[in-house]
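Sat 14:20. Reprocessing the chain from the morning session after the first attempt stalled halfway. Input below, unchanged.
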Amino acid sequence: MPVDSGFVYINGEFIDSQRATVSVLDRGVLFNDGVFEDIRIIAGRPFRLEDQLIRLKQYARATGLEFPLQLKELQRVIVELVERNGIHDGGARVLVTRGPMESRSSHALDGALIDGERKSNGSSHALLPSSLIAFALEIGQFPIALPREPIDVGVYVPDRRAFPETGPVNIKSLRQTSTIVALIDVAEEGYAEALQVDASQHVLGAIYHTVFVVRSTALIVVAREVCSLGDTFRNVLLELADHMGLARVDEVPTLEDLIVSNECFLSGFATPVVPVGSVKGRQIGDGQPGPITKALMAEMDQVFRNVASAS
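Finished this time. Tokens:
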């Protein structure tokens, strides 16, 4: 399905995507003031839909956004959106913005300020209405769909001075400028993805993926407080690792720790397990998926088959 065909959902209506519009005064357009969540579609079914929407609601609450629908109602919206668009293997993105600015105020945060006033003085003011936008696409139309074969990744040091607006790392915010610039920079170096490291060479994650490292028989997971991608497949992999009896350690490894590890793989929205063969040409292990990576790939394939058979 072309990106510009099918249906989108905007504030209570399913609309032909070629006719769909969003106000130019919407805070999401003007100030990137909003949050989002991506929902994986497997065999025509939203995967762990309730968990994803609960997380979206938590993002909204953390940023002072009114959540526009009850969770059950929003679940029905997403299911219908997927059906209307005939998505088999793909994803849906749901966005909540702070809504259009009202004519009485030009302040980007007037809704948040009103809520703050209500909390502080007990007045009857409520949050201004949020905007809810959702669309669904086949997986190849989503960024980034990496292969299942071993890849060579780059190294990227985020410039927090250039992009101080990034915000809390555990919230999927619409403020994605730093991510886009990072992807452009690493693409110019010939990489589809890169490890993000801080000034002391600690790995904070990848630009668009969660990073896993295998040391002996232990699975090292980049600590949640520095990882901006709390995606569902990360959680599924942790469940599978527990089921396999793997020891699990949450830490922030250094780049050198990662390169000398036994195995390394990424997990993302489009591809749940992506083996990392090397970092800027420096080979990890023998450069091929190790036994734990291959076992987790097989287990994840079984998860997909189970979802498909239940459809």
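The chain is about 30% helix and 25% strand.
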